[in-house]
Amino acid sequence: MFYQPKDGHGLPHNPFNAIVTPRPIGWISSRGENGFDNLAPYSFFNAVAYVPPQVMFASTSSKADRDFGKDSTANIRETGVFCVNIVEYAAKDVMNITSSGFAAEEDEFEKAGIEKTGCEMIACSRVANAPAALECRLTQIVDLEGEGNHLVLGEVVGVHMRDDCLIDGIFDVTRFQPLTRLGYRDYSVIREVFSLVRPDD
Predict the structure, then answer these.
(1) In the prediction, which pLDDT does 65 show?
(2) What angle do CA 19, 23, 25 make, to 5 degrees?
(3) CA separation (Å) from 42 to 34, 38, 61, 104, 189?
(4) Which residues form the Flavin reductase like domain (predicted)?
């Protein structure tokens, strides 16, 4: 099968997200100038550079009660900071609650019963028991093709790692089993890892 996205795929559901998988989930916490905290998952998320460490996430629609994208993008544009919380399998249900379209002034931490704590380097809350959290300062927001599509890039200025996930100096993802996003309404979980040595190593 071949199709051009501009012409449609002719399938019951769009296969694009099922092709580009698995995707890590950036559970983005932010705070607006009004002091309201926000927490929302984004599956268009990844690390993009080592030195300095940088991450990105993309928001792909808008909210009626915001003049710029969703709550996360609006908050980050106002304050210039955000935190990426890593999602473990055990948090799948509360993460899913935070994907709801709550009003801008509603706190997803409270709605989902998630304990929050303050960040060290930025004025933002983070998920208290997350396996890891990356405190970020905004470097740029890029408007993408299509209505409501925004790419947010940030430099990581602080890193939290849960102690039980550090084994002999290695951050062991099997200790918390990262949740990943697939296509449609599907998710997956990482429970096994293996290593490959590059030919020139």
Answers:
(1) 77
(2) 145
(3) 23, 13, 12, 17, 16
(4) 18-173
Predicted model pTM? 0.94
The number of distinct structural domains making up the chain is 1
Instruction: Note whether 127 and 39 are within 8 A (CB).
Output: yes
Token look-up 């030195």 returns 51
Q: What's the pLDDT tens digit per position in 25-57?
A: 999 999 999 999 999 999 999 999 999 999 999
Give 6's pLDDT tier (boundaries 50, 70, 90): very high
Q: Which domain holds residue 76?
A: 24-182
- In a domain, residue 187? The reply is no
Both structure tokens of 189 = 């979980």
CA distance 59 to 52: 23
Q: How far is CA 7 from CA 3, 11, 137, in A?
A: 7, 12, 39
CATH number at residue 96: 2.30.110.10
Tokens representing 104 are 């801008």
- Band (pLDDT 50/70/90 cuts) for residue 68 is confident
